Amino acid sequence: MHHRAVTAVLATAALLLTAGCSSEDGRSPGEDDGSSPGSTAGRPVSPESSAEETPPAKGSAKVLRTVGTDLRSPWGLAPLADGDLLVSSRDDATISRVDAETGETSELGEVPGVSPSGEGGLLGIALSPDYASDRMVYAYFTSASDNRIVRMIHDENKPEGERLGAPDTVLRGIPKGVVHNGGRIAFGPDRMLYVGTGESGDTGLSQDEKSLGGKILRLTPEGEPAPGNPFPDSAVYSLGHRNVQGLAWDSGQRLFASEFGQNTWDELNAIEPGDNYGWPEAEGTSDEGGFHDPITQWSTDEASPSGIAYAEGSIWMAGLRGERLWRIPLRGTEASADPQAFLEGAYGRLRTVAAAGDDKLWLVTSNTDGRGDPGGEDDRILEVRVS
């Protein structure tokens, strides 16, 4: 029988909303939602992807159980090999371990240097590709001066609350703001570190190849520009993004990313190195040349997407303002059918989704982030079976 030892100021800063600029909730408060349609198909299926096996047009999502409860402003999630989960608290700047069998939560420790404000704080976390031997946990957070990435040794033999070693800074200088801090980090199949950033409310940064804002970055585990990046001596992998908070790879090792729109369209994109995704010149599908159009797009009140994961031939996308889990079936890098929504309004705001093996996902709610309506068990981690 499997056995393991069981270890035992919400930020409510006012939103910085520049003219026409929306936050994780989509539109600016009081703005007319209009009557724009919901999800729309992206480009036609390409010939090279048409031979791939495609998932059914319709799928399913069923919550099997609640794994963890009473989490404060959870943001990042990192599954451990033994099945337990590490989760970051945006506003408390802590990383905790949730026992996936009992739900018991124990604190690893607080990450020093985090300065929570608005949408900033301790955001995404990821395990080193060599975590089994080096025990390194990577974290993306907002400091007093920037957004940055650090790595820390996780030592379970230390007392609770003291299990994180001193942070080693991997990358600094990512622009910060009260809104649009990006924050998702993930190691890809190539063992490189991918980073979703935001333009911090300064739209001009997205098209500036020299800025780390409004980009997807690709780094070595030590924080250097990864070999083979599209721009010489640069960490920039793709540009023209507004606020990337979801990264995932399919079974063909193709990268996908979710992105907050402004007032009209949220996006799911297939990421190609060096491509320009249009912001602020384009939001959603554009007739302008030179920009990579999204696979699919949603009105901001239906999505406001954060995390994404790949399972059962589809991308699964968590919606904050949309309060639903979206299924986007894929054929190659195209949507093979219309997106389908699940759990609409059932669990409130949804922040993070992660693959849990086979046909299961971990799903993290986000109702204690200052914009939700917390219930008695919020925030929660749910186990979901999907098809």
Task: Give an account of the 3D structure.
The chain is mainly β and 387 residues long. Helix content is 1%, strand content 35%. It is built from 1 helix and 26 strands. The chain has one helix at 131-134, and strands at 40-41, 61-68, 74-79, 85-89, 94-98, 105-110, 122-127, 136-142, 147-153, 168-174, 185-187, 193-196, 216-219, 236-238, 244-249, 255-259, 265-270, 296-299, 305-311, 314-319, 325-331, 334-335, 340-342, 350-355, 360-365, 381-386. The strands form 6 sheets. Strands 1-18-17-16-15 form a 5-stranded antiparallel sheet, with no helix packed on it. β19 and β20 (314-319) form a beta hairpin. The protein is globular, with a radius of gyration of 19 Å. Mean pLDDT is 90; it is low at 1-21 and 27-50.
Give a brief description.
With 387 residues, the protein is mainly beta.
Structural class: mainly beta
Shape verdict = globular
Q: What is the average per-residue confidence, as pLDDT, rounded to a whole number?
A: 90
* Number of H/I helices: 1
Question: Strand order of the main beta sheet, please?
Answer: 1-18-17-16-15
Succession of helices and strands: EEEEEEEHEEEEEEEEEEEEEEEEEEE
Q: Tell me the Rg in angstroms.
A: 19 Å
- State the end-to-end distance: 29 Å
- Could you tell me the strand content as a percent range? 35-45%
Helix content class: under 10%
- Which blocks of ≥5 consecutive residues have pLDDT under 50? 1-21, 27-50
